[in-house]
Design a protein that fits this description.
binds zinc ion, 9 helices, alpha/beta, about 260 residues, Lysozyme-like, elongated, two-stranded antiparallel sheet, Muramoyl-pentapeptide Carboxypeptidase, domain 1
Length: about 260
C-alpha cells in the first residue's frame, strides 16, 4: 500500500528540483497522514562531511525512536530525498496556532547540517532548493508561506533548529510563491571537453572527494589538503569567490577553476 504524500516528487520535479527516491518510501510511515497544514524545517545535526550522511538514520530511526524520522531529506547539494509518504516522527511535543499534532499535520523536512554556528550559513545551493521546494509543497497543499515553520517555533525552548531566521525564510518562500524569484541554476555546468577530447575538471562542492579536491585545496593554500570537501574547504572557496567577484556559492565550477592560482 501507499500513503498519502506520494504527490511530493511530482511537485518538486515540476519546479526543476532534483529528487532521489529511497526504495519503499511510498509505503513507509507509522500511520496515514492527516490533512497537511504546513511544513516543518529541521537540521539533522549529522556529520560535517558528505552530502546526506544522515539519510540512513532518517529512514531507520535511532535506538530510542523508530524511523521514518522525516518525509524528506534535503542534501547539501540541494537534492531532495524521498523518505516516507506516511506519518514520520519528526515534530515531537509542541504547538503552533493551537495545533499540537505536529507529526499528523506537517511535512517534516530534515536538512543536512551539523546544527552549529560553524556550519552557517548553509550552502546557497541547499537554501535555494529549500526555498523552491517548500514553495512548491505549500502551493500543492493549499497553504501560504506562513505555514512554513521551524522546529524551534513548534517546540521553543526544547529545539533550536534550524539556526537561520525563519521570518526571513518565509519572506523568501513568499517571494517564490508570488512568482517574483526565478529559479537559480541548481547545478552549475562542468568544464567542457578539452581539445584533446578529455573531460574537463568536475564541478566540486561540499561532499565531493578525491584528487581534484586535493588539487583545489592546494591551490587555495589550505594547510590540510585531505581531498575531502568539507565545511572548511567550502568556507575557503567562498572567501576566494568573494575576493574574485564570483558568486560566493561555495561551488567550484568552470569560473572558479579558471581563477584559482597555481599551487605553490
Ligand atoms: Zn528538528
Amino acid at each position: 500500500m501507499a500513503f498519502a504524500l506520494t504527490w511530493m516528487p511530482g511537485v518538486l520535479l515540476e519546479v526543476g528540483l532534483r529528487v532521489a527516491e529511497v526504495p519503499g518510501w511510498q509505503a513507509r510511515g507509522h500511520a496515514e497522514m492527516g490533512p497537511v497544514r504546513g511544513v516543518m524545517i529541521h537540521h539533522t545535526v549529522g556529520p560535517a562531511n558528505g552530502n546526506m550522511p544522515s539519510l540512513n538514520t532518517l529512514v531507520r530511526g535511532r535506538s530510542d525512536l523508530p524511523g521514518p524520522l522525516a518525509h524528506l531529506g534535503l542534501a547539501r547539494d540541494g537534492a531532495w530525498y524521498l523518505i516516507a509518504a506516511g506519518l514520520a516522527y519528526h515534530a515531537g511535543k509542541g504547538s503552533w496556532r493551537g495545533l499540537t499534532a505536529g507529526n499528523t499535520h506537517f511535512i517534516g523536512i530534515e536538512c543536512e547540517n551539523t546544527g552549529t554556528a560553524a556550519d552557517m550559513p548553509w550552502p546557497e545551493i541547499q537554501m535555494n532548493a529549500l526555498r523552491q521546494g517548500v514553495a512548491a509543497l505549500l502551493r500543492h497543499a493549499g497553504c501560504d508561506a506562513d505555514a512554513c515553520i521551524g522546529h524551534k517555533e513548534f517546540a521553543p525552548g526544547r529545539k533550536v533548529d534550524p539556526l537561520f531566521d525563519m521570518a526571513d525564510f518565509r519572506r523568501s518562500v513568499q517571494a517564490v510563491m508570488a512568482g517574483g524569484v526565478p529559479a537559480l541554476p541548481l547545478v552549475p555546468a562542468a568544464e567542457p571537453l578539452t581539445a584533446a577530447g578529455q573531460a574537463g575538471r568536475p564541478t566540486l562542492l561540499r561532499g565531493s572527494a578525491g584528487p581534484f579536491v586535493m588539487e583545489l585545496q592546494r591551490r587555495l593554500g589550505l594547510s590540510q589538503a585531505d581531498g575531502i570537501f568539507g565545511p572548511m574547504t567550502e568556507a575557503a572557496v567562498r572567501r576566494f569567490q568573494r575576493l574574485h567577484q564570483l558568486v560566493p556559492d561555495g561551488i567550484v565550477g568552470p569560473k572558479s577553476w579558471a581563477q584559482l592560482p597555481a599551487a605553490d
